[in-house]
From TrEMBL, chains A, B:
PANTHER family: ADP-RIBOSE PYROPHOSPHATASE, SLR1690 PROTEIN
InterPro entries for this protein: NUDIX_hydrolase-like_dom_sf, NUDIX_hydrolase_dom, WH-like_DNA-bd_sf, WH_DNA-bd_sf, WHD_NrtR
Occurrences of domain Nudix hydrolase (ranges): 22-168
Name of the featured protein: NUDIX domain-containing protein
Superkingdom of the organism of origin: Bacteria
């Protein structure tokens, strides 16, 4: 496996020259579909091993722009809503030999860092707009329910857990409107809160609180195709779309 | 100023060999004294220029441990309560030439990074236990009221603002007990909340909410040396001292 011409070896050589060593970005891309919170994962070529999307920061690029670039490549979307949530900086985050063995990459000859510190970002995206795309190291990119994520490469299960905890804590500060289509019913919004929080909420209390927060606007239309007493449609008032 | 033997040049040479390039840690050390929130700042040798304490991460050291080491050196305290709050990753965070000119360091000959990404940590410390200590680049280390901080070197005014915003948002999740002596009165605790939030609170509501949170324990003693109707002393229940 000492193949300098392997695309992975060439990729890491290029990264080694143009990007900042010891530092990477990992992305937890959250979507919401059929009442379930989902995360976008990649399957590595010729394996059944999955990981989060990630990448490196160019020496001349801001960290936020690197994160945008990396997530854009996997989703097809630009100007994503991103939130930095944690730096994973342990000296030994995972067993490197075991991990690289699983994905069988010829990295022995690449001048690569012995260690990587990862800046975690999560993205809140509208599921239906994403066109999942693998990169050249991977052959499948698809959504997984957060409740059914397999054992991932690296420390990526841990990263997802920390992202989820962070999203839960910030639920009322984050523009979770990005996870929804423009219009939605109150029960749909409640289900989004419930799936993020991992617990059920009382419908009457939820309605009271969400209306009191004055973030929603009721439309004159109702959800089409539902039996009689169809629920009203709502949307977030426009200032809730503001990102940091 | 092409002096390889200047202690600063030797320091940066050593850092360049042993530490991770392009990456640093900046520390916002918060203390609370005489009803004021304070931050520990350093004055650079032979100048009237101030900055936050900071430092670099050794190649074999976790990011959290590097932050502990850096803050310990300036405060004399170990096992500090630290909270990572933001990565400052702009490609050009400040005018480098202007900044380095102000502190007059002979860095032309050092193989140093063109750019630094900084991981911001804040520390919550008990003011009275800190013994402020400058490093070899600085000649004074002292507390400043957050409301009276001068124009700082680098982008450190911005970093303090982001730390404060983060502390405000997380006020009820953070063990702010670390900012207080073991025992305190309710009005003292209220003043701490007010100074962090930058606004006054209604005493009766504050008392009701803080007691409802069930985080405090009332002692049988009262504050000594106060006129009659001396207020009771309280302390945080021990599980509130837990750090992440």
């Amino acid at each position: 496996m000492n193949d300098y011409n392997h695309p992975a070896a060439r990729y890491y050589q290029e990264v080694s020259e143009q990007c900042i060593h010891y530092l990477s970005i990992d992305g937890v891309i959250f979507g919401f579909h059929q009442n379930q919170l989902k995360v976008l994962l990649l399957r590595w070529k010729g394996t059944n091993e999955w990981s989060l999307p990630g990448g490196f920061i160019r020496k001349i690029e801001s960290v936020d722009l690197a994160a945008q670039r990396i997530m854009q490549e996997r989703t097809g979307l630009d100007a994503l809503y991103l939130q930095q949530f944690h730096v994973f900086g342990e000296a030994e985050r995972y067993n490197q030999e075991e991990t690289w063995g699983k994905i069988n990459l010829p990295l022995q000859n690449v001048n690569w860092s012995a260690r990587t510190i990862s800046i975690g970002y999560y993205a809140l995206v509208e599921y239906s707009r994403v066109v999942p795309a693998p990169d050249f190291l991977t052959e499948e990119c698809r959504w997984w329910n957060v409740e059914a994520i397999p054992a991932l490469l690296f420390d990526h299960n841990h990263i997802i857990q920390v992202a989820l905890q962070s999203l839960r804590k910030q639920l009322n500060d984050q523009p979770i409107s990005h996870l929804l289509p423009e219009t939605f019913t109150i029960p749909e919004l409640q289900r989004l809160y419930e799936t993020i929080l991992g617990s059920t909420l009382d419908a009457r209390n939820f309605y009271k609180k969400i209306m009191a927060s004055d973030r929603l606007e009721r439309l004159s239309e109702r959800r089409a195709g539902t039996p009689h007493k169809a629920p009203f449609l709502y949307r977030f008032k426009s200032d809730n779309f503001t990102t940091e």
